[in-house]
Design goal:
Oligomer: single chain
Bound molecules: pyridoxal-5'-phosphate
Largest sheet: 7 strands, mixed
Number of helices: 12
Radius of gyration: 21 Å
Distance between the termini: 24 Å
Shape: globular
Length: 368
């Protein structure tokens, strides 16, 4: 066991695949394939296959992916987009940035993704879209969400930033909704060495529109059909991602193994709520989030025993200063959970001794 059980350890991951990564970066440099080029198109093709989607468009980051996806849908100006109250701010930020209105929705009390019941109650004549966030790597109930959307003629975007390779009923996330967005922020399950993102879709029209928006509305060089923006996945990041994608299934298997270990060993502790994995979910455990009454005391105890933890997220979106102006209603679960959740270390960097140490110390905490 190492001295500290790290929450994330990208340098140990790099060392395991160093020669592959170094060669990939070297070839980008030698070819000067910095923008567009073969690494980007090969990665897009490999990643769309990985997601069981027809198309993938590389973009600058996961936040841009959301903005571009929303713009590509050409939703009525100022119409309402329903987003979960518990997510990273990028999800709601993108909605406001493109001139649409954010409507926050409660989370499911057990699996933490968007509550189907509350979602139904938030739909009105101004609603135009739903963003389904596969939070912590657990897929939303996409069966019900797509049914609700088609009944009400709403667009659906899957925010897959935390869920590369997750599945709903055997279907890969990124292949189900109209458009799906991914982040390759370094700490995500598939991470670049800088910012990166992608949009996947099965619609040729939407693929073309996203690609044009991300590249100045360009038809060909110096011929622009409309004003877009500059948000492209660059060649160096694509080359890194192409290497890492080959290892993703192995790394995800290890995440699931660790999650199963935590779940079996921590079961039965009275004040500790384990994450629920729905029967229809392939959960890829971007995060392993438990709930305890005194989360801060547990975090401090683990820290003093060399175990790093995180909180995702300490303030639910409607309670952020950024959204004070909305005067949101209170949410029974997402408000309360933000004070009870704590994320345990998970990832391929952890040894069996590391995860055993985590379990032992959590048990110590609850027995003292
Ligand atoms: C990380 C993340 C994003 C944003 O991705 P960036 O690449 O950092 O812009 C969006 N949504 C969720 C749920 C995320 O976790």
């Amino acid at each position: 066991m190492s001295n500290v059980v790290k929450f994330l350890d990208l340098s140990s991951q790099y060392l395991k695949i160093k020669s592959e990564i170094d060669n990939a970066i070297q070839s980008v440099l030698e070819e000067s394939a910095f923008i567009k080029g073969p690494h980007v198109s090969e990665f897009e093709s490999n990643f769309s296959k990985y997601c069981d989607a027809e198309y993938a468009v590389g973009v600058g980051n996961g936040t841009d992916a959301l903005e571009i996806a929303l713009e590509a849908l050409s939703l009525p100006a100022e119409s309402e987009v329903i987003v979960p109250a518990n997510s990273f701010i990028a999800t709601s930020e993108a909605v406001t940035r493109v001139g649409l209105k954010v409507v926050f929705c409660e989370c499911d009390k057990d699996n933490y993704t968007i509550s189907i019941k509350d979602l139904k109650s938030k739909i009105n004549k101004n609603t135009s879209a739903i963003i389904a966030v596969h939070l912590y790597g657990h897929p939303c109930d996409m069966g019900q969400i797509m049914d609700i959307a088609s009944l009400n003629k709403l667009a659906v975007i899957e925010d897959c930033a935390q869920a590369h390779g997750a599945e709903f009923n055997g279907r890969r996330v990124g292949s189900i909704a109209d458009l799906s967005t991914f982040s390759f922020y370094p700490g995500k399950n598939l991470g670049a060495y800088g910012d990166g993102g992608a949009i996947t879709t099965n619609s040729k029209d939407l693929e073309v529109r996203c690609r044009m928006i991300a590249n100045h509305g360009r038809v060909e060089k110096y011929n622009h059909k409309f004003e877009g923006r500059n948000s492209r996945l660059d060649g160096l990041q694509a080359a890194v991602l192409k290497v890492k994608l080959k290892h993703l299934d192995e790394w995800t298997r290890r995440r699931i193994e660790i999650a199963d270990f935590y779940s079996s060993k921590l079961e039965g502790i009275q004040d500790l709520v384990l994450p629920k994995r729905e029967s229809w979910a392939r959960q890829v455990y971007h995060l392993f989030v438990i709930r305890v009454p005194d989360r801060d005391a547990l975090a401090e105890y683990l820290r003093s025993n060399g175990i790093q933890t995180g909180i995702h997220y300490p303030i639910s979106l409607p309670r952020l200063d950024a959204y004070k102006y909305m005067n949101c209603e209170s949410f029974e679960y997402s408000d309360r959970y933000s004070h009870e959740i704590i994320s345990l270390p998970i990832g391929e960097h952890l040894s069996d001794a590391d995860i055993n140490h985590v379990v032992v110390k959590i048990k110590d905490f609850f027995s003292s």
